[in-house]
């Protein structure tokens, strides 16, 4: 996969405030739709994205525990807001405020997932960066990545407990653009 | 589907008409394909399926723009629907932190999103107020419960106390009735005695009246006796004078008889001297002497008689005097008796007055006792009702307590 050879440039891309990056996946996270903004910002072609796993754009700075939280939530049928840094094909990165929701069939069964991503406020990103860094550090300090992820998950739980908010509330509290 | 429609380069006049037709046919086929694809996606969307998109769009120009335009329309609509659904879902759970993120929302979507957010804010306030009201409701319920439980406990205690008190009251009423009955009998006896006293007093008064009359009569008789004894004294004194005068007369007669006897003796002597002739005369003289003798004898007897009359009259005078004195004593005694009787009459009158007063008092006591009996009866009846009421009160209190529990349970469950 292309991702393996990507070298981080440290260059941050951005997109318009009226634009939304849209992608759809099947229940396993395989991309089934990518809109023009996605294609444009991530730097991949539609052909490269369709059929690829969504973690094609996963940035190494993202803590595993955040994606675990995300998947736990959406596979349970709930929505998730998450500040995510994504990786472009050329090694650039871009921050998004991702709103991920399941799609249901008439019987209420999850048929796939939908993600619409907006440009986050810079102030929110500045608050998130050190949190993710500390979680990532916890994860990296454990040679067993699953155990590390579990530790970081505990840390995230304590953090939320200290501010007295659920994850949803916390994530949304950082959103300025409502 | 990899063909890309391309404008025929200008100046391709060398191309044959057939090639041009072929090219246009291919282009038309491609148009048909994408129009069909777009129609299907639009139809699915029109039926509420916002999942379909136009993929692998390999056409440029107007047709390409149309395809991406359809995708964009669906993307914004889809995103808006998901946002709105999420916000309303949270709101339905009473979580109001979630808002529609306005970023990326344009035009009508943005406007609708703003309205949803405003509504959410309103709902948040309402929910806060509701929560406060709920809290107040529960507080009120707690207070209400505490108050009512306290009241119910008090009522139950009061009912119990009423029950106990009314039982005591019933006992007291019974005792009162019994005592009133006794008192009533005593009063009846008292009343009977008072009547007897009154009757006796009346009889006594009548007796006293008779005694008074008799005493007065006796007094009158005594007065008459005094007068008569006085008259008797005068009569006796007259008798004494008369007998004295009779004695004087008798003395005179005795003198005359003596003289007569002397004269008769002288006549007898003369008759004897006259012999025969004098015989007749001598007989008369003898006769006269005999008469004189008889007169002397009769006079002596009269003197004796007069003496005894005088003795008797003296004795009578003495006796009459003693009788008068005794009569006066009797008069004094009867006066004392009269006074005593008078006093007794007054005392009796007083006794009667007292007896009457006692009778009146007793009558009043009887009335009072009857009232007391009636009151005791009323008390007993009231007490019975009270006992019933207390039992009902206890029942009501229990029911109230249960109802309050049910009410509070339903208040708190709401």
From TrEMBL, chain A:
InterPro entries: PAS, PAS-like_dom_sf, PAS_fold_3. Pfam families: PAS_3 (PF08447). It comes from the Bacteria. SUPFAM superfamilies: PYP-like sensor domain (PAS domain) (SSF55785). CDD domains: PAS (cd00130). Residues 26-51 form the PAS domain. NCBIfam families: sensory_box. This is PAS domain-containing protein. The lineage of its organism: Bacteria, Pseudomonadati, Planctomycetota, Planctomycetia, Pirellulales.
UniProtKB/TrEMBL annotation, chain B:
One of its GO terms (biological process) is signal transduction. Residues 151-387 form the Methyl-accepting transducer domain. One of its GO terms (cellular component) is membrane. Keywords: Transducer. SMART domains: MA (SM00283). The keyword Phosphoprotein does not apply. It comes from the Bacteria. One of its GO terms (molecular function) is transmembrane signaling receptor activity. The keyword Oxidoreductase does not apply. SUPFAM superfamilies: Methyl-accepting chemotaxis protein (MCP) signaling domain. InterPro entries: Chemotax_Me-accpt_rcpt, MCPsignal_dom. Belongs to the methyl-accepting chemotaxis (MCP) protein family. PANTHER family: LYSOZYME-LIKE PROTEIN-RELATED, METHYL-ACCEPTING CHEMOTAXIS PROTEIN MCPB. This is Methyl-accepting transducer domain-containing protein. The lineage of its organism: Bacteria, Pseudomonadati, Planctomycetota, Planctomycetia, Pirellulales.
